[in-house]
Amino acid sequence: MKKWPITTIVLVAIILVLAGALIGTLLYVRNQPPPTRGVTPLITVAAQEPDSATWGLNFPNEYSTYLQTTSNNTRTAYGGSEPYSKLEADPRLVQLFAGYSFSKDYNEERGHGNSLTDVRATQRVNDKTPGTCYSCKSSDNPRLWSALGMVEFDKTPFATLGERIINPIGCANCHEANTMQLIVTNPALEASLEAQGKDWRTFTRQEMRTVVCGNCHVEYYFQGEGKLLVFPWAGGTRIEDIAAYYEGIKFSDWTHPNSNAPMIKIQHPEFEMFTASSTHFAAGVACADCHMPYTRDSAAKYSTHNVRSPLLNASVACGACHPDVEYATARVAAIQAQVRTTMDAAEEALVAAIQAIHTSAALPSADVAHLEEARRLHREAQLRWDFVAAENSLGFHNPEEALRILAAATDLARQAQVAALQAAAPASAPTP
Ligand code: HEC
Ligand code: HEC
Ligand code: HEC
Ligand code: HEC
């Protein structure tokens, strides 16, 4: 038998090893490669470890920057980390949220490390508050969700559940221990994605750099007696889909005392607003690109975990992609000022609509059909306005979408006002 020359054998072996490595890599990067930057792990972290300091032993850069979120207090033109009262800054909100806890206490949000202190301090919490309110506040949650299940977690009273919650948002909310892969930890997000036929385990790393924020930065509601956390995404994540969803199940958070309309309070739909075909999302940019940009500490390169307004760090946060940082931040200022002006018009229209409904409803001769139509329009107008108002970027995440929604809100509010006026003078008014 002819012997193979040793060089051929070595060559074939090298080719086989390289091909194997390539196939392995290709299979692996379909999701996320393990992070290789930084120091070699010193300890093994327990699954769902709630204490971020333990993870911090392995990843001091990520941990120390994460800790900075607790002490940030700088305010920007429309955001930042100073927890000023939104009600004092814009007293119209007191009228718009009349009869609801948001008219009593509504502050600008701040860094992740404060999540637990802040949810416990808010006057919006009382003895009827369900455990659901802890859903986005603590790194103890993944472990509790595993132990109790989300149904039990949500229906436990806030105070009782609170005895088992000691850590603010931390590593376990976003990462799997040791592999450090980004994961979906909130069962409500898992369920919502599943309902859309999506499995986050197949998502790319870049997709996960946005989806991981969707664990919390989304619109949600509490379903049924057990106050189960649900994202209203069954029909889609645009505001029209969400409005139709709430209408379909006849859901309301409270009844407005002056208009008598069944109202919806929108929470913080950053994920929905950003992913509604914004320029950046369409270009493949992720939340983490702007809010957790790569940072260099001599030899180490890591994602800063000091999650905050990118305007406080624009040269790094925007500079990675936009060489002209000054131009980019000037655009933010212009976009936010324009959205603010357009939002003011929507708020004026809403206040006028509420007053018109209130006045008309007091008349014994008021036409009920027109009043009902006015109330329906008030609800629809205000939840659209709130989708922009409660979103924390003041339009920057998706300027076109924000302005489009505000235009619709103003139009619907003025229609509500007209319907209320027609209710007062039914003889001259056409049937709605
Ligand atoms: C292209 C960059 C960019 C991307 C991508 C991005 N943001 Fe932002 N974000 C900003 C800017 C700019 C602001 C406005 C900050 C300000 O007004 O001080 C902001 C504001 C915020 C705020 C309020 C911050 C504050 O200081 O009050 C939150 C919360 C937020 N973004 C979350 C997200 C989430 C979640 C995603 C992904 C779904 C995301 N962002 C995607 C740039 C970005
Ligand atoms: C709010 C979500 C979130 C929290 C909380 C969080 N991380 Fe991360 N982390 C990320 C994202 C997003 C990345 C970027 C991942 C990527 O690009 O694949 C990341 C990346 C990392 C990496 C990879 C190296 C790097 O810096 O890019 C390490 C290590 C890490 N985080 C450690 C931690 C530790 C330790 C904690 C707790 C102190 C923590 N993370 C908390 C979202 C989070
Ligand atoms: C476990 C829930 C959770 C996850 C996951 C999460 N956030 Fe947050 N985020 C919050 C809460 C709650 C606050 C408000 C905390 C407070 O005001 O005390 C917040 C605040 C913020 C702020 C405002 C910080 C400031 O200083 O004003 C930004 C920006 C932000 N998050 C961005 C992100 C981004 C980007 C991601 C994904 C990489 C993310 N968050 C993931 C719950 C979460
Ligand atoms: C990961 C890359 C990346 C980062 C980080 C990034 N951008 Fe962009 N930005 C883009 C891309 C890509 C576009 C699409 C337009 C283009 O091709 O220039 C864009 C477009 C824009 C536009 C024009 C939007 C429009 O609708 O025409 C503005 C304004 C902007 N970015 C501001 C910012 C600001 C401010 C920051 C930091 C908070 C930032 N960007 C961070 C990649 C990025």
Task: Give your account of this protein's structure.
It is a single chain. This protein has 432 residues and is mainly alpha-helical. It has a domain at 52-323: Flavocytochrome C3, Chain A (Flavocytochrome C3, Chain A, domain 2), CATH 1.10.1130. Helices cover 48% and strands 4% of the residues. It is built from 19 helices and 6 strands. The protein has a two-stranded antiparallel ribbon with strand order 1-2. It has a two-stranded antiparallel ribbon with strand order 3-4. It is globular. The N and C termini lie far apart (96 Å). Bound molecules: heme C (HEC) (4 copies).
Please write out the topology:
Layout: H1 6-29, H2 52-58, H3 60-71, H4 86-89, H5 92-96, H6 115-121, H7 141-148, H8 150-155, H9 158-162, H10 187-195, H11 205-211, E1 221-223, E2 228-230, H12 239-248, E3 254-255, E4 262-263, H13 270-275, H14 279-282, H15 287-291, E5 294-297, E6 300-303, H16 314-317, H17 325-361, H18 368-389, H19 399-424
Antiparallel strand pairs: 1-2, 3-4, 5-6
Bound molecules: heme C (HEC) (4 copies).
One heme C binds next to helix 6 and helix 15.
